[in-house]
Batch of 2 targets.
Target 1
Amino acid sequence: MLTLVQIARFLHDLAFTTWIGSMIFMMLVLTPAVGAKGIPPQFLRLMGIERFKNWAWASIIILAVTGTYRLYGRFYMFDLFLMSRYGKLMMLKISLFLVMVILTAIVSLSYAKRIPAEAPQKPGEQPTPEFATMQRRFISFSATNLALGVTIIFIMSIIR
Ligand code: HEM
């Protein structure tokens, strides 16, 4: 018989794998493939920034709900929790997670629609300087988010 804790662990693992795994794929495979110039808009739509955004938010909600559920029993003596190595690392992880949520919000609100819309419209057409700047910013936000996600996974592997 499955317990709620087991289901929460499964969903937590599935959510961080989906979120961080998609970021790794975008950074290591898709972004280098698109390169800096002459990007056909079809390719950017294929990159699916907008679609990825929806999965990212679904993962964030699942991680927050299942993570809080798994942590719940430890909050009854919050002072002791905070003094322990486990508690300190967990609070560091949650702080990094909150930074990731803010970066995801910035990317979702300002880049997810503009990048496909403002990309060069014909294959071979040069991107405008504004578009190139926006794309560079998008890539650095995404790289920072990925670095934070990998740091969280590292923290979770040394937390016990
Ligand atoms: C509000 C946000 C989050 C909370 C409250 C939370 C909480 C937790 C808790 C309580 C555990 C179990 C730790 C233990 O074994 O004692 C856990 C495990 C884990 N979390 Fe999170 N988490 C959150 C977000 C994230 C995020 C964003 C990631 C990845 C980027 C992540 C990755 C992991 C990993 C890799 C584990 C270890 C595997 C597992 O036991 O499922 N968590 N988390």
Target 2
Amino acid sequence: MATSALLLSLACFSLSFRAASAQSTSPFNRVTQQQWDALNASVDGRLAISVPLAQPCFDSVEGVVGSDSLVPNTVRCSAVQSVWTNTTFRVQQFGAYEQIFSERLHGEGCDLNALDPKDPAAMNTTCQLGSIPPLHIDVRTASDVQAALEFANKTGVPLIVKGTGHDYLGRSSAPGSLALWTKNLLGQTFHEEFVPEGCDESVGRALTNEAGVTWIQAYEAADANNATVVGGAFQSVGASGGWLMGGGHSFMTGKHGVGADSSLQYKVVTPDGQFRVANKCQNQDLFWALRGGGSGFGVVLESTIAAHPAYDNKVAIVQIQNISMDAQFEVFRVFAGLRERLAREGWGGAFLPQFTEGTMAISMVNPTLSDEEAADTFAPVIDYVNSINGTDGILVTTNGFQPSGNYLFIQRNYIATVPVGLGAFIGSRLLPLSSFTSGNETLDELITAMKAGLSKIGPGVWPPMEILMDTPLLTPDANNETSMHPAWRSSAFVMVYGVSYEFDATQEEEKELMQTLHEALDFVRDVTPGSTEYNNEADILTENSQEVFWGPNYPALLEIKRKYDPNNILTGWQYVGFDKGAPLYERYNL
Ligand SMILES: Cc1cc2nc3c(=O)[nH]c(=O)nc-3n(C[C@H](O)[C@H](O)[C@H](O)COP(=O)(O)OP(=O)(O)OC[C@H]3O[C@@H](n4cnc5c(N)ncnc54)[C@H](O)[C@@H]3O)c2cc1C
């Protein structure tokens, strides 16, 4: 569905939005037609009306600018139903986000049933624009961003940036906001010798991705040049947006560190309206903030990341069915016992338990070991898993090494996906390596807490728990070149709990799920004092989030934020410098 097909007459912007908006005090309603026209002219006519993806399936629609001209359409509805849970399709649409929390407002939205997109019950209501920004600019140039910043400063209309719409905390949407959509910035350049602008020397091979490039496109470009880049597990996540600025963990983190360790240069428009190049030779403070400080320091037009050698990655997969929670954690105990060795050897991977007696899985990737070396390292897990096969009904369906290959091959063949098009909240906690090396009592305490949290989460469509071996133990960042919390460098795992909900969840049910997730994490927080949580995979209710995410780096980050964004124009939930009480955050139902 081309965006242009959704463009409606600009003449009805102010009037229709005022008529539909519940918040009559919204700055959006005070914008005059002349101001919209001027903004549209300054971005070469690329100001567009946002329409929820599923609108053709609904008889009535509210909140969309010019909604009078929108009618149901069975052919288009059927097309949307067939791709509702397709992430590649969703990231191409402005009116769709990966999780419906980004689209909903106080429990209302315009959603299909992700488990059965043809379910008429979901469509038997009014389609609400919800938290989707009513208008967006299809960004092509730095001057588009500058025009939007000037407009936001003058009018007070909140400005947000949307790349792919993957953000779990709904920060690439906001009700009554103007959005900058970077999806169509798709240029890529591979450099055999990359000299950051303003520097004299090459820093080696590198890949530049404009802001709309996703990780699968970056993996393809790296692969075509016999290289590997450190990127996200989910292929449709953006390569230059929230993932990279927030730090970014990867199956390659064990070998090459987090995404922030590999970033070499950004081109951004900072919220003060200036186009800037940030790297180790200029705007160094901004560069440091963009290496792990999260979103909000500027609108990124492109980033350049290191291109590492291509590898023949060894892959081990374990899948076990009908295994109790206690038995799963006994497998985890054997696996975690190898953690120091796995770190030294640069492994990445994931341990994925289940709440119910379903299928649990382990996926392991090593870029540099030989077949024999990899098999030797992982043998204790394989042997233990074989030893429990058949006991208490446990059924081991896969247990061993799979065909190896380059990172693109690994991505295409082995990386599991998560459901999209439904509601999900997740929250993370990094598990310190010391919890695994300080004796049985400490480990028992941690495992008891992890199980208690998992029991609290309960069953669901979403993976209830992921234990990701994506921590940079081999990459100490001794000179504090990134702004990530130092605890990342001494952590063994990124542990993530997740809960999900359907189209018909009420605001109260959403709120209860957030609380459940928060309380599940509390069990693990209690036994991991001083650890950190990942700002991109964060519990919305994390208390004192800025200290928890960035620790000793927070004061410097706040200073940099104030320098480049004195009016806090580019802000979002849990960003550096966010004001929890701002009207923008009423949507969090707190
Ligand atoms: C299915 C799934 C799998 C994931 N897997 C991983 C993983 O393996 N490792 C990991 O570390 N994280 C992972 N994440 C979390 C991911 O890092 C965050 O969701 C991240 O915020 C996504 O960034 P995005 O730019 O693609 O998404 P968006 O929702 O478009 O943006 C996220 C944030 O970045 C801002 N932003 C986006 N583009 C720009 C830009 N050009 N300039 C300025 N600000 C911008 C937005 O305003 C928003 O605050 C995953 C998320 C999902 C949903």
